């Protein structure tokens, strides 16, 4: 899911981690499609998301989702949500999609190509971090309404692009780490699993984990130099976790920023014959189902999740449409998430739908029927 952005930038530039102040503001009135009455930096919750019909406008529009990497289930579900949301506007006559396959240069080329094709709106997951900012600024100057989501390119929302939409990433990491540490009894070895090496999203989650670890002296964070790179691929996660088990022996807790990939790590513990650790991540059907499979034989194995928030792409589309149409949009830019599954809490038991594919994300916003169709 995201690339580049150095740790120092993450600590000094709020939009690089998604941790923005709640003061808010409107996009400035400079050149390009960033201008308009689209507020930036407001903090809210999922219930604050509005109906897309307020932003569709009347003129025919072409919209695009420029993905930095489209190779896992999270990205496929998010694309399906984007396309379903765009279909609600009858004046959106064309929906385009590009997949940079984790290649920053291809991501730059993809956006340039979309601009050349005359698209009106580009929503983009910026896996290339700040390397994409000059390209995004050029697209904005060309009159395209650009909204990055989850992966930040840096720069200034409301000037360099319409807005940046994400959850509060550092809070996400801190919340999961605090839960994990409590379930560990406040003692033991902890690991934080990230995605593609150097990506800003995983670094933001890691910063939140660090905050929780610093408040708990009984916890040893084994990866002190940053998140463990896994490429968000279940097969690679299994290999990486197997290596961590060999290197460290005892691992008591794991915080991950991708629940769908965490299943590979769980299988690594099974293959090694080691006790399963306390594990927290974002939600995934198989992640929940595996807990039910092993909970009786692995007493140390507890899980918690926050929403995988695929639905956040709809806000990015809303804001881009509003900017393209010169319409107001005051939806939040940053979304606070809460723990939605907790195996230690009878009121928040993990949700496993055996009729759905393993890769289904039940908090995504897609219906059961849509998820079944997507994974046929």
Task: Please explain how this structure is put together.
The protein is of the alpha/beta class and 376 residues long. It has helices at residues 7-12, 14-17, 73-86, 104-116, 133-141, 169-183, 200-214, 234-248, 259-272, 285-294, 312-325, 368-374; strands at 43-44, 61-67, 92-99, 121-125, 145-148, 166-167, 188-193, 219-221, 253-256, 278-282, 303-306, 334-335, 339-342. The strands form three sheets. The chain has a six-stranded mixed beta sheet with strand order 8-7-9-10-11-13, sandwiched between helices. Helix 8 packs across helix 9 and helix 9 (259-272) runs parallel beside helix 10 (285-294).
Let me know the largest β-sheet. Answer: 6 strands, mixed
- Overall pLDDT: 89
The Rg value, from CA coordinates, equals 20 Å
Q: How much β-strand is present in the residues?
A: 5-15%
Strand order of the largest sheet: 8-7-9-10-11-13
Number of strands: 13
What is the share of helical residues?
Answer: 25-40%
H and E string: HHEEHEHEHEEHEHEHEHEHEHEEH
Q: How far do the termini sit from each other?
A: 24 Å
Structural class: alpha/beta
Poorly predicted parts = 1-31
Number of helices: 12
Instruction: Using the alpha-carbon principal axes, give the shape.
Output: globular
């Amino acid at each position: 899911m995201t690339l580049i952005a150095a740790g120092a930038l993450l600590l000094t530039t709020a939009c690089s981690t998604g941790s923005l102040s709640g003061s808010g503001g409107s996009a400035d009135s400079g050149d390009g499609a960033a201008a308009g009455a689209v507020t930036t930096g407001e903090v809210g919750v999922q219930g604050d998301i509005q109906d897309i019909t307020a932003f569709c406008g009347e003129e025919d529009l072409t919209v695009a989702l420029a993905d930095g990497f489209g190779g896992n289930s999270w990205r496929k579900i998010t694309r399906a949500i984007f396309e379903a949301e765009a279909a609600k506007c009858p004046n959106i006559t064309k929906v385009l999609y590009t997949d940079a396959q984790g290649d920053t240069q291809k991501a730059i080329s993809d956006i340039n190509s979309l601009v050349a094709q005359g698209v009106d709106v580009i929503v983009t997951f910026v896996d290339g971090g700040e390397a994409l900012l000059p390209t995004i600024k050029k697209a904005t100057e060309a009159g395209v309404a650009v909204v990055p989501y989850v992966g930040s390119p840096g720069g200034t929302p409301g000037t360099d692009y319409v807005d940046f939409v994400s959850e509060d990433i550092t809070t996400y990491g801190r919340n999961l780490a605090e839960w994990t540490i409590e379930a560990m009894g406040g003692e033991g070895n902890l690991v934080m699993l990230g995605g593609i090496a150097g990506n800003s999203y995983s670094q933001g989650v890691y910063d939140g984990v660090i905050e929780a670890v610093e408040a708990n002296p009984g916890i040893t964070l084994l990866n002190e130099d940053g998140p463990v790179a896994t490429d968000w691929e279940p097969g690679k996660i299994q290999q990486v976790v197997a290596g961590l088990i060999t290197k460290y022996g005892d691992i008591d807790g794991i915080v991950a920023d991708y629940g769908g990939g965490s299943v590979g790590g769980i299988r690594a513990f099974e293959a090694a014959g080691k006790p399963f650790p306390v594990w927290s991540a974002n939600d995934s059907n198989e992640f929940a189902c595996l807990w039910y499979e092993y909970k009786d034989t692995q007493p140390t194995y507890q899980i918690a999740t926050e929403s995988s928030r695929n639905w956040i792409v709809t806000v990015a589309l809303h804001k881009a449409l509003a900017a393209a149409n010169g319409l107001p949009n005051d939806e939040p830019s940053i979304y606070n998430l809460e723990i939605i599954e907790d195996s230690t809490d009878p009121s928040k038991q993990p949700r496993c739908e055996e009729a759905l594919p393993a890769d289904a994300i039940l908090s995504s916003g897609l219906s059961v029927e849509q998820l079944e169709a997507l994974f046929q």
